[in-house]
């Protein structure tokens, strides 16, 4: 199984409601750059699901990916910034009937989820830069069962 964890692109500064912050023009460019890179990472014959947090900036980032990758977006509650990594993993697992899951979400959740899946430790983990994507692979989704195999940050080199 392949799991891609991606942070949304650059968003507007804080508003009255955090969930209503929209992407900036730079954020849309970042999302497009990551989507173009992702298109080279996903096997042509793989089934792929694109999951996104209900927050506006994640929805807009996922919409950019959806246009480039030709995938529908599935909105998944439980993968917002302050959700627990265990709750988020259950929400993601409920969609795991595909070869690959692409999850667009937020910090600090993504850092914690990545740390838990890679190292088996529930910590805040290493932060994600804007529109960063990390590709994890493993037989099963679970704590310490996935290995990071690729990483992309718009404007920087891949790992």
Question: What's this model, at a glance?
Answer:
The chain is an alpha/beta fold and 159 residues long.
Describe the structure.
The protein has 159 residues and is an alpha/beta fold. The chain is 32% helix and 19% strand. The chain is built from 4 helices and 6 strands, in the order βαβαβαβαββ. It has a 6-stranded mixed β-sheet, sandwiched between helices. α2 links the parallel β2 (48-52) and β3. The mean pLDDT is 92.
Helices and strands in order, then pairings?
Blueprint: E1 2-7, H1 25-41, E2 48-52, H2 56-69, E3 73-75, H3 85-93, E4 100-105, H4 109-119, E5 133-137, E6 147-152
Parallel strand pairs: 1-4, 2-3, 2-4
Antiparallel strand pairs: 1-5, 5-6
